[in-house]
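Usage

Read records sequentially. Each one opens with the input sequence:
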Amino acid sequence: FDATLTSVGKCIFCVKRGKVNMYKKVSYDDAVNNRIFDDNVSKRIVIVMPAHNEAGSIGDTLDSLSKLVTVKDTKLNLFVAYDNCTDNTEEVVKSSADKLDIFGMDTVSNKDHKAGALNQVYQLFFGNHDTDAEDIGKQQKQCVSNIVAFMGIDADVYLGSNCLITLWNELQQKYKIAGVSANYLSLLPTSKYKDSKSTSIINLKSNHGGSLARFITAQQNKSFVQWTLEQKHNNYVASILGGQCTLFRPEALEEVNQRYKLNGVYSTETDTEDLLLTQQLRALGWVPRISESARCYVDSMKTMSAYINQQVKWSTGKLDYMTKAGVSTAYARKSWREELTIWMNLAIRVGLLILIPASLALNRFKWSWIWALPLVLSMILNLIVSLKVPNKRFIDVLLSVTTISPEVQIWFDAYIHYRAWKNLAKVDKSDGWRMQELAESGSLQSGHVGIIAVVLLLIGIVLGVHFGWLSSATALDAISPYISSGFTMLTYLTLFTTFLMVVKLFKIRGNFKG
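and closes with the structure output:
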């Protein structure tokens, strides 16, 4: 029969084809007084989703959740944390009450962004440890004991229909598996001005962008795929259980909550809460996994400003973890190697830009075929990765195999990590989440410090040449004694980076899918 809506207290019930769905507004007080769930015996999978002004994208996310293949004899409950929303996010969520069991919750005095919003939801299940807070009720604890998995997702993702059941089956393989993360892929933006023959697997009305947005998305997808391939090669051990879509074992999250004395399950002292949670789980003996095939389509950054600030936020959190962990964990050691590679790549390019013109001017240039090795390996490496990217375009493969986009990425990574180290050195840390939010909305005001510095440098060079303070002869005289030793150093760096690329090629070999 047709859908019939009935409002009872704080609940909106929808009866459709014999199935009851609902929207219910809850708070921590409801957990204390056993008012959240209608029974305490059903097995449940709880989806936890933070939402801050997500009206434009959350509808697509909810649509994908309604199409999921679910676990037999297990209820699927969605908890949405409205975090300081100023748009109609809640109204969009309510409109999906005919397809999902949804619990809405307003965050209270949250200043910790995504981690804080998630923690307030998890307090409904693990309790609020503030000194003046009451413990959750006896019946609520019984309901929590029947939760078989928590699924953390973002409000701007689209899950493949088999994503949940695949993650569930993989989580059940061994008890020591703490969580299983999906394979991520960004959807290629389509033009909003014309009908686009997009190669996107899924076309969403909210996913629009121009040529730059598509280039940024292609770069993100290459990073996703290479990261995924390396983890699968490492016996499917995940370096990070990403917050975009991960299915967690409740016992693992509860142990983190208790052992690290958290008021929830995420630390609020970092911008990369997913990274830290994963390392805490590993320290407790749990194993984080990446899925063989579960697919989650994530929103991409569509402007360079948003992309830069997202990457700076992630890199700052990663560097913060590295500097605190030293070399005490496998992930920290891997991260230090990656950091060293970034700066070695930059040093090689800066050295070549200085030494080749200088040696040519002094008739002292000698070509060595050793310097061609990284270029050849880079072409092979990027061709393999780009061919394994689902939803690839010919132009993306061409830019990769000609090493154009990889070269752009090397300079981009160096800039991002310079910004990240700069942020880490500040006494007053910048708010990475706020910076990214402003950049995505187009409201971020740039100080243009870098541009001003480059302009002043160029003015200084022009004035120096004009007044005779600088000349090519004096520059060459200054460089000349160091040309031989400089090329020797570049040769050693080239050989070392060649070795690292061979190792990377080894890690992405095989029939693994990105």
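Summary fields computed downstream for this record:
- The longest helix spans residues 330-361.
- Residues 1-9, 14-18, 195-200, 438-444 have pLDDT under 50 and may be disordered.
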